[in-house]
Amino acid sequence: MPLNHPDEDLPELQLTLREFVLASQNLCALQDSDAFIRFVLAGRICSNGQQGRVFVNARQGAAAPSNGSYQLRSDVDSAVGIGRDLPFNVPLAIFPLASFRDTLTKDNHMKYTSKGVSGSTVSS
Amino acid sequence: MALGKADRRHVTRIFFPGLYKKGQSPGITADLRAFIYEKALRPAAIEVNPLDQSRWPITYSTLMTLSRDVRGQFHFGTIDFPVQLLRKFSTKLLEKLEIRDELRGAFFVHELRGTKGGSIHNPGSVEERRAAIAGVFHIFDRNLLNEEDWVVDVALEVRHEGHVLQWLTKGHRRILEFILQSASAEQISSVLSSKAQYHLDLSAQLGDLGGFRALPSSRGAADSVSYINVYTTDKSATYQLHEGIFRRRKAWHLFPDNIESLLKDLTRIASSFRECAGNATLAGLEANARLEIRVPLRLADKVLMQLPDPLIQQSLATFDCPTFWRVVLDVTS
């Protein structure tokens, strides 16, 4: 029979995260490194001489924390401002030689339309 | 390029839009750096505050020599500029930069990062939120700020004591609906299916678990949300600002000469995850679930004032520390 799926046609076994961990610990305890690697990397398990394919279902058996059992808090993680002013109320420690480490190297998800360059928008 | 710092968590940079060329290196040439120092930065500082003339190295070349140690490594010192003269200095500096075509239209970008620890408050309290914002902005004179030019990242964090919380990928739509309340179902679907606007971050390679980052662009405009970051703090177990053991590995690390060192690192990584799982004498490492959004400063005391329990029930899963960290260990090995 031609197989459309690249994987072998084996019986499927759905595991919760807890069951996955218990099974891997058992294989570890047996010191059967081949079986352990086949299990955690290839999702293969052998039970009573029968090979099976393992599917980890992280949602199975998992629930959200019940109302009242969790804590909720809020914070302000960062702030970014753009302008042509230095509006501080404390002295500014100026780098005569710009610190390379503090150069912006990643997109900070801010856009600013520069008035100095006609029609161009720069991501800053 | 970095201009200065007023606090450990802050940096102000100066941007030169004229130097921006799509797809090209953003590095500023040595010649331009010398020009900026000798014809703009130093003269502006000295004209505004002549008393400190002697503190500013006389040329860029002198400055470079002074900044290098015996091994040739750079050390970036700073010169404090008095607060009452800063406005005059900024005007003077920008004025001097206009002399050179490619430096025209320069502007400042002020950034405060990593302020979450110092701004924790009860989400439901407007007063506490305002106090937290005031704390974050303590180095700025709020009267001089144009609030429209500022954005803040406001966050909600959920903790389940003794547990690792994980976002469910299935719950992402509900989270977007909660954050982008003005967006239609079609707009939410468009964000979720856009490669540019939605980035899924799977946890432990499990398709069911993971956060996401979204840049909703015009689809977030009605709610004034420009960026969304939904993640869990288990990344703190592997997060390194420097290049460390949890760095990206390349194929050549598997070559015979290198594999021993890789195996040693793997042993240390595994040991670190085992410790995160906890034991009889050490409580495991928890992970909190975070939801961060970027909004204009004017909305900072109006957004994320609550996280409804039904949303938590639909979008989070909780695991005991040993189970979660053991899975991480298994997929790493």
Secondary structure elements and pairings:
The complex is a heterodimer of chains A (124) and B (333).
Chain A: E1 12-15, H1 17-29, H2 33-42, E2 44-47, E3 50-56, E4 71-83, E5 92-94, E6 111-113, E7 121-123
Parallel strand pairs in A: 1-3
Antiparallel strand pairs in A: 2-3, 6-7
Chain B: E1 2-5, E2 10-15, H1 30-48, H2 60-67, E3 79-81, H3 86-97, E4 107-112, H4 126-136, E5 150-159, E6 163-167, H5 172-179, H6 185-193, E7 198-203, E8 206-214, E9 227-232, H7 256-277, E10 289-296, H8 309-315, E11 316-320, H9 321-332
Antiparallel strand pairs in B: 1-2, 2-4, 5-10, 6-11, 7-8, 8-9, 9-10
Helix pairs in contact in B: 1-3, 5-6, 7-9
Keywords:
heterodimer, A: about 120 residues, alpha+beta, two-stranded antiparallel ribbon, about 20% helix, B: alpha+beta, 2 domains, 5-stranded antiparallel β-sheet, 3-stranded antiparallel β-sheet, 11 strands
Question: SSE string of chain A, helix = H, strand = E?
Answer: EHHEEEEEE
Task: Assign the structural class of chain B, choosing from mainly alpha, mainly beta, alpha/beta, alpha+beta, or little secondary structure.
Answer: alpha+beta
Mean pLDDT of chain A: 81
Number of strands of chain A: 7
Residue windows where pLDDT falls under 50 for at least 5 positions of chain A? 116-124
What is the N-to-C order of secondary-structure elements of chain B (H for helix, E for strand)?
EEHHEHEHEEHHEEEHEHEH
**Beta-strand segment tally of chain B:** 11
